[in-house]
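FAQ: What does the model actually see?

It sees only this:
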Amino acid sequence: MRNRLLIFLIPFLLFGARPEFKEGVSLYNQGSYWEALRIFAELADESTTLNPQRSASAYMRVRCYNKLGFSQRALMLARDFPRSYPNSEYLDDLEFLLGEIHLDLGDPREAAWYFASSAATTTDKKIRKAAREYTESLVGTACVSADLHALAGRAVNRTGQFVALLVAERFLKEGKRGEAIDILFNLRPYIRDDDLRKRAINLYGKIGSSTVDTVHVAVVLPLSGALGSIGTPMLEGIRFAAMTYMDSTRQVVELHVYDNKSKLTESIEIARQVRDNPQIIAQIGPLTNENIKGTAAVLEGHSIPIIAPTATENHLSNLSKGIFQFRATRERKAIALAEYAVQTLAMETFAIIAPSTEYGQQFADNFATRVDGLGGSIQYQGWYVGEPTDVSKVHFRRIRELGLEELYLKFQADSLRLDSLLTGMITEGDSINIYEEQLAPIMKKSRPSRGDSLKVELSHIDGMFFPIHKGNMLYILYQLASNNLNTHILGDENWLDKEVLKKNASYLPELTLVAGDRLGFQQINKSFSDEYVRIFKHRPEQYDFMGYDVMGLLLQASQYAGSSGNRLWNVLMNSPNYEGIVHQVQWGGGTGRENDLVFLMDYADKAFELTGYYDNSGFFSMDSTQTEPPSELE
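And it is asked to produce this:
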């Protein structure tokens, strides 16, 4: 190996070299090390003006001493080389040579370190490959325990990270799981390069599969396809939770990761594999309602809890006792928002504009039913298909027509008071017709002109409910502004886009949202975010947090359940509360497997603030220390 590596260097050493230098290299390659040493020593002692290859000559002098068995002399000259030739192009090659010298001296620890340093600094791919192979071999077999501990804590630069990861792998092979985890935990704040980051993540996976005390969890997410942008960060959050958990406990986690590509057929086939694997005690995912249903049908009766991270369809958990809905259902959120609007905000009249999807229909119908039950009035309910690019032509127009008609009727009634004034029935101070003043911009022959109706601000709707899909908020904001309605907007968590709201604050009337997590107002610990960035190269966002918290829920339960899916199911059913980074769970609903906890947020001064929350005992206002009595659910 070493002779071959010198051949790699020869073309560079000989290019433009003096005849004496070429002769020295030729003698070296023939094994005539004494003769080569005489030439290189003479050349190295010349001044740089006489010998431009002085540092190359000094480098070859070190190689000759090492070949002749004068390893200590070679080591002394090699250590002095960087001081004597600080700008030499052979400094990188010197690292590999130092590895060879220490190997010849019988010091595998120092040899491994210098070979690792060579792999980190050289630009020559062949030398890098050889240096890595030497390092892996020495750390993996030759170094004793004291050497390994010394190497693992030597430095936190790239060389130190690479060596420490090799030491962790060696410890893991020897069954020293705790020592391997300690190394990984200490390294995590420093690893930045992608290749080392991937190596560390893979090592966490090996830690999970190397011991009998392991929690096996299936993770079924769309890692490719249309929903890959959701599944991938969720998986990273799950992995981070597993890493954090293994750092602090003796229990370990092995993730069985599957890409269902958002397809029902893939989800069903994966469920069969999970069903047939006796080690797996729980499954996270899939994401969509239909895929959850298909998975539950296959796993029914197999004591494998299925945590649905995003599926919010009403009564989904009724289909299988294995389904746990991590997010509150649409019904739960719609009822909470309706109760808050009527009972706390004292709203009476409402309009609903929703997409004609299952999501929009369930949300809108549940909201309307609860408003009716509380004595409120749904004055208008409309649907749209696709994106709400233009709901003004039909929906906003109809809402304005209703308002203008109501305003005109009030104007007529008020006009009768004017007639009464003439007969002395009321005083002059009561004669101001406020409705005539409102209608003044469009009055024509005592009737309002519909064609000019946008000049009149209307406030006949107390609250307008928009359960939208993600990305549709801007369409609604622009049309709200142009239709001149003074109303309080009620929305779901798809309105939770602070950047869009901040840029379009002038279009926004009052806004209240119902959400299934605290992401809108929760302050995230900086150390958590910084460590996440170091490992995954991006800041944690909605689905990273969701993955972390879903996995945290399972791991908290697994501490008491061990490796039994049936015990895990029982623990989940009897653990009423869980609090993660941004999610909180309070199991309830008809099955006891729906998250009953939802949050109400108001948008004010370009920020969201928590107004209150609903749990399975009722509404808790942040303005009060008292919990209101639970309201009757329809």
